[in-house]
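Lab notebook page, bench 4
Experiment: in silico fold of construct C2
Operator: M.H.
Input chain length: 287 residues
Purpose: comparison with the prior construct
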Amino acid sequence: MNGSSLRLPDGRRLVYAEFGAPDGAPVFYHHGLMSSRLEAAIGADEALRSGLRLIAVDRPGCGGSDPLPGRTLLDWPRDIAALADALACPRFHVMGISGGGPYALAVAHALPSRVSSLALVCALGPPESLALLAAGPGTGLFSFAGRWPKVARGLLAPLAWWLRRSPIGFVERVMAGASAADRMALSEPPVRAYFARALREGVRQGMRGALADAALYARDWGFALAEVDAPATLWQGEDDHTVPPDVARLLVAGLPQCTAHYLPGEGHFSLPIRHLGQILAALRALA
């Protein structure tokens, strides 16, 4: 399924897609920066095998979801709660990949009675951890997006145009600066095509949604890691050139219940591509 939508109480449209077992235990999947709900398609077969129902949601301004001007990180759990109610999911798991990590953490913090467990995969950490990013978006973009959003949107408009016109070319550009494991994983044509579809959809409305995400990563989140009490697993590639292992260590140190898995030789993209079945099985086991 490529997309369904929910009309939220404030009139906004929230777009989501479901993968895996339709009657399985629900997992709300949080996509990475500049991506979309289609990112979760790579986990469809593994979710089916694990008896899980992946529900991947476009954040405001990303993919097909309507923007929410001035949004904060803690606005997001209200959207997820509304969708969970509409889909008859009183309890559920949450999963955050890369830039989806902070949003998954926000849901686990704000909805403790509903979140069974949490999985963080190559996830971004709180604002103080952004200085640890040696590559990838980097602290500069996050701070710039927060201070001068209109200027940032104008400067990055060509990137959105490129992603819509040639997403495969963008993925190939990402490969040039990636780790060996990531280059190998992304060299597979079906994998490149999967990422290209998710990225093209992610910037369907331009860079507004991605820039809002970037700005929120650098601001105070409104909660501390110590206040996220859901059982958590964290998965980190030791050869990740985008979100390095030091970010994962900061997350593990701050979360009250977190089991960490550091995978030697894996990068930012190769880890979820190669190990999603293991990640989903561990998530299910924490129910």
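Observations: Residues 25 and 52 are 5 Å apart (CA to CA). The chain has eleven helices and eight strands.
Next step: discuss at group meeting.
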